[in-house]
Amino acid sequence: MTQTRQLVAIMFTDIEGYTALMQRDEQQAVEIRQKHREIFNKNTTDCGGELIQYYGDGTLSIFKSSIAAVQCALKMQHYFNQDPVIPVRIGIHLGDIIRTETDIIGDAVNIASRIESLAVAGSILVSSKINDDLRNKSDIQTIYLDVFEFKNVNQVMPVFAVANKGVVVPHLSDLKGKTEERIGKSFKRFKRKAAVLLVVLLAFIATLLFTRQKVGSGQKMNDLTIAVLPFNSVNLDDGSEAFTDGVTEDIITHLSKIQHLQVISRASAMHYKGSDKSLQDIAKELNVNYILEGSVRVNNNQVRINANLVDASSNKNLWANNYDNTLVQIFKLQTDVSKDIANALQIRLTETEESRLNNTPTNNPAAYNAFKEGQTYLHRGGGKVEELKKAEELFKKAIDYDPNFCRAYVGLAETYLEYIFWGRESPEKMLELATKPALKALAINSNDGGTFGALGSISYYKFEKETAILYLKKAIEINPSYVSAYNKLAWIYTFEGNLKLMEENFNKVIKLDPLSPKYLGDMAQSYYYLGEFEKGIKKMDESLKLFPNNNMLIWMKASNLSALGRYQEAIHLYTSRSVASNTNWMLGYCYGMIGDYDKAKNILDYQLSKNKMVHVPPYMIATIYMGLKDYENALYWLEKDYEVGGQGLFFWGLKRDIKFKPLHGNPRFQALINKLPLDIPK
Fold first, then answer.
1. Out of 143, 406, 412, 583, which could bridge 437 as a Cys pair, Cβ 3.0 to 4.6 Å?
2. What proportions of the chain, in percent to the nearest 5, are helix, strand and coil?
3. Do residue 70 and residue 149 come from a single domain?
4. Model confidence over 583-614: pLDDT tens digits?
5. pLDDT in tens, 474-518
6. Total domain count for the chain?
7. 279: helix, coil or strand?
8. pTM (2 decimals)?
9. CA–CA distances in Å: residue 287 to residues 175, 384, 422
């Protein structure tokens, strides 16, 4: 018998539920199968394919290229979806086959069959080899689903779904097929198991990234950038969704500790949760070389994490694997990660580097779970007091479970600092509260970037410039992707009047967190303090295209407009916001500056009354008095602001704030200025 070898695209199709239909209505089943074959034969011929055989309600065919096979599948699904609808599943794989006069055989045929068995009615599933061939075809869209272990296939296989309009993209929970489970012994708690899996996963990611990008390859080390997209939860309950988000965050946190690798922040990555954008579009928006995506499956208290690494420039899948709970020595695994990285980079780790990479956060699952839940509330970033109190409570609970949990102390310190940023409590009070856990964290672990970041922020709010710079630079040395540290440094250089260093640090912030309205707004306000008001407005116009209704960005643009004396435009923006549209302190200032004193006084009265019930930064009340030209009261409230610890950002900028220029010759104002560690602007 003559045999030949060929590299072909192999397609399997079948009709979902055909056997049950045959039992219910034999005549209808025959008619549907006949229509299926007519559509299949015509389109296969038109696309240059070749039928190998029919088997019951299914077909096996081959094509000369991946593109021809997928284009044919799309055409067929279009016709199958016309009334009467035929529920057809299609699977395609590219591989080497042995062809005889009547049949084809080979592992590739088996894999194509297994992929088709995963599909649901109306879908087209393809292997990574097919997907690689489609990466430059803009008219064919695909979505990564998961990594699977198929029966009688000795390797894990990434599977993708064609996602063109009119084609069904199945949810992971709908995928059954001829697969094998690879779940090992169970742990007492599945969340602890997931932490183990993450460390193993990171070892593989780090090794692959650095093996592919060696020094001297033509690409600079600081060009290594990666975004970890929110992992998909195979389970549909709310608890699993939150748990999966925690998995994503842990991967980002660990990768951020790797020198020379820039990792997009959690805040920007989470913008793509549930997004249907292509990976290439996401990579372009985030300006990254690599994208990591994956899924988490929790089943009967067991966990599986699947991951897929993509080269963003080519949309080629570099590597994919899945991890279950067969490894339990989490602390040893963290040591293995450091060795993998060092070996891949051909670097001998110093004792300090060994210490940082060998650090283990906690061995108490309850402490870790409380910590992760606390981070969830802290990262919501809206400054709501109830959320900050919940975060505070959870970090304290984590500390109760494990008094040596360094990161829980850092989380507690960061929560107190958020009260200051949002003006919810007296800075003096919050700084005292924040200092204790920050120093405790330092005593536990002197090689933690978050600890130095918290200490740097505390020094920043205390007007201790030199100390703040030292702590913040130390945080960056330990964690090169520490966004908050770059942000605080940018503000310090702003208040020194150093435009170059301000832009250098803020550009780093926005590279690492490009979709954060908070940091985009911060940069605009930095331009305000440097007298670069038009730059601030331009930055906000660009940012508002991304976030057209963001209240903070609208506020920052209005602030820069007010500095140019364009008060009516600023008022229009302040009153267009969805919050505090008639009570904002800057709105009161602008009303005063145009002579509308009644409206300004109404806002002043509102803020004074509010101050009797909750903390209102005195600086804000002083600003309204400046609009009313009541300089004595403005000075009184500025002095009061300093007494309660200042409002960090606003008070450091007092010397450069154009709103307070009329006070520059006043001795009381000069006395306040002299208490700050920066030069008086000329």
1. 412
2. 55, 15, 30
3. yes
4. 999 999 999 999 999 999 999 999 999 999 98
5. 999 888 888 999 999 999 999 989 999 999 999 999 999 999 898
6. 3
7. helix
8. 0.70
9. 33, 32, 30
